[in-house]
Amino acid sequence: MDEAPGLSDQYRTASPWPVFIALGIPISELGLLFGLFPLAVGGLLLFGGSVVGILKESGYVASTIRAVTALAVIFFAFGAGLAFTDIALVTRGYAVIAAAILLVVGGVVFELFVREQRQTF
Amino acid sequence: MEVNGQLALTVLMGVFLIAVAAWLARVEDWRSYTPLAGGGTVGGTAEQYVSEEKPSGVIRWLTTVDHKDIGMLYGAYALVAFAVGGLMVVLMRIELADPSMTLISNTFYNSLLTSHGITMLFLFGTPIIAAFSNYFIPLLIGADDMAFPRINAIAFWLLPPAALLIWAGFFPIPDVIPAQTAWTMYTPLSAGVGSGNQMNAGVDLMLLGLHLSGVSATMGAINFIATIFTERNEKVSWANLDIFSWTILTQSGLILFAFPLLGSAIVMLLLDRNFGTMFFSVDGGAILWQHLFWFFGHPEVYILVLPPMGIVSLVLPRFAGRRLFGFKFVVYSTLAIGVLSFGVWAHHMFATGIDPRLRASFMAVSLAIAIPSAVKTFNWITTMWNGKIRLTTPMLFCIGFVSNFIIGGVTGVFLASIPVDLVLHDTYYVVGHFHYIVMGAIAFAGFAGLYYWFPIYTGRMYQVTLGKWHFWLSMVGTNLTFFAMILLGYGGMPRRYATYLPQFATLHQVATVGALILLVGQIIFVWNFVQSWLEGREVQDGDPWDLADDDLVTAEWTWFERKLETAVTDGGEDETELATDGGQTVDDTDADAESADDA
Ligand code: HEM
Ligand SMILES: [Cu+2]
């Protein structure tokens, strides 16, 4: 700060992801707590997608698809834990598993189509 | 019906996600940044270019990761929450103007009571502190930004959903009613046991919101610890780290140990309520909750009071014309309070029938914690002693802080003594005790900071006379309201009731009058704050408080001075602000007249 006041004004100024991470958490929590399947899936997708987005933006991961897969595996394990063990929260478990699968699908779609398009301009 | 509901939700969720994706696609096109972790190995290379400017308008605020912007967001959020919590309690105080149930129902009173407490502690107290720390810690320690700017943004954005969830019971949602558990959420009431209505989803929503605010606070704390440890300028050593950073560092440590515990306890409670676990319904479950809650709860009160103490320790010497007396001991006492605050929690449980030997040890530590608190108080007083005191508005609030903190602290010491507590527990005396601290001290320090740094974050000066009105109305209102409560407690008036015996009427009316005086003061504050922000005199001088005269300038003012000098080349600000900053002639007489007014 001493050398260049106002430096932080010109420096990593904005990121679109934090808002959506912060929205994804409560939406998925609400869905899982009250057993609202669509909210749980949607919230987890929002959360997972934004986490991957922010990780990539800040350069912590190199490949979208690998980050998505890693996150999906964690979701899947958690969902399976809910659905297939003695905890037996079956609907909620399936919601998490569904989110895991959709996350991977979304990641693949992004990799195959969206990113290609982006790079053309 | 059920299927239709699910279908509607699915469609809604789907549309929402698509909207988000579409918005992101657009944002990603104009968005610009430098990757923080410096990897530069990201796949979509076309997207990487250094930004010269923040985006404009609402999008700037939604996407910012700049610590100053986030500080402003925290501040705005906290002041909105302060207004909400304040209006809630005005309603309650009006209801309490007469002994019987008149204006609002008893259940609605209980709902307001619960929300007022949680709003003030978690949605006003913690965020207003985060506002100052986000804005000023990086400036004070010479860092470019926080260690994790994006985490910082996430921590803030968790708070608006938290507020919506905490207040959800008041919204017109079918079948959802507000929680009436009080902020301590004691089981079995909060577990929904019995014939009451606390099994309602409104309580679950409130618990979720509280949990979310805890996640936010924890993220912020990790960020501050990392920032203060790793981002300091080479010239800032531990030996000359400023007092505010010390208190934030200590506070963050407390948050790190206290909030995750609250989070876990809340999850356990949610499991009890919704999934048939029995953490708090087996034998001893109620006491278990109290232990868990207060193990968090007592450190929480120091989480809330340490940074305000830091603000006062920073601001008060500037207007006493001398350095903080016994700086080292103020730091040591901060650390001592931080450690001791984890050893006193059961002083909230003296009346529960826990083992008397345990009780005695908690009494001992509670009395001991008064010592470092007193050390600070003496240091503030000694700093002012024979000083060159300038009674500016921030200074008045600092002196008010010290005065109210003494009353709040001394009443606390009495409560820490078991025999006294057994008489006064669960009376208005306790309410008076902690409000002297949360309103009389914490909120006062918040105002001191808001006025002191007003020129930095607005570029303008507030209206001095209105500032003084705000102080005096707040000071008189606080003491009227809460001293009346202390007396009510001596008289045996129990806390948390919407109605009372006629013999308490006079003191309750005094307290209500005090609360209304407070309300008038805060309306003046809002007016002054908003109007001065929009139309106040522009500050042309990087040292509006003339700190240089006593050689008391701190880093954030140096930064501000340079910012004023380099305003034209500073690419980060809004265009409009730039134009006016650069386009106006320097008017030093104006600024001088202002500070002379305030002196
Ligand atoms: C000087 C040190 C202090 C001591 C010895 C002390 C002691 C106590 C004791 C013994 C109680 C329990 C009273 C009861 O319920 O019977 C209490 C309550 C409380 N104190 Fe303090 N206190 C001190 C400072 C503070 C500070 C600095 C704060 C706030 C930042 C604070 C906030 C509270 C709150 C919120 C309660 C009420 C909790 C509730 O039951 O809702 N105290 N204090
Ligand atoms: Cu305590």
Structure description:
The complex is a heterodimer of chains A (121) and B (599). Chain A contains 4 helices and no strands. With 121 residues, chain A is an all-alpha fold. Chain B has a single domain (58-541, 556-562), classed as Cytochrome C Oxidase, Chain A (Up-down Bundle). Helices cover 68% and strands 0% of the residues of chain B. Chain B contains 20 helices and no strands. Chains A and B meet through helix 1, helix 2 and helix 4 of A and helix 1, helix 2, helix 5, helix 6 and helix 7 of B. The structure holds protoporphyrin IX containing FE and copper (II) ion. Protoporphyrin IX containing FE (HEM) binds at residues 184, 301, 304-305, 347-348, 366, 369-370, 373, 409, 412-413, 415-416, 421, 425, 430, 433-434, 437-438 of chain B.
What separation lies between the terminal Cα atoms of chain B?
69 Å
From the spread of the alpha carbons, the general shape of chain A counts as globular
**Outline of chain B:** globular
* Approximate strand percentage of chain A: under 5%
List unreliable stretches of 5+ residues of chain A: 1-11
Number of helices of chain A: 4
- CATH evolutionary superfamily of chain B: Cytochrome c oxidase-like, subunit I domain
Based on helices, strands and strand pairing, what is the structural class of chain B? mainly alpha
Instruction: Please mark out the parts of chain B with pLDDT under 50 across 5 or more consecutive residues, or reply none.
Output: 30-52, 569-599
Order of helices and strands of chain A: HHHH
**Greatest contact between two chains:** A-B, 51 and 83 residues
The span between the termini of chain A is 37 Å
CATH topology of chain B: Cytochrome C Oxidase, Chain A
Q: What is the level 1 CATH name of chain B?
A: Mainly Alpha
Percent of residues in helices of chain A comes to over 70%
Mean pLDDT across residues of chain B: 89
Organism (chain A): Haloferax marisrubri
Pfam families (chain A): DUF7541
Keywords (chain A): Membrane, Transmembrane, Transmembrane helix
Transmembrane segments (chain A): 32-55, 67-88, 94-114
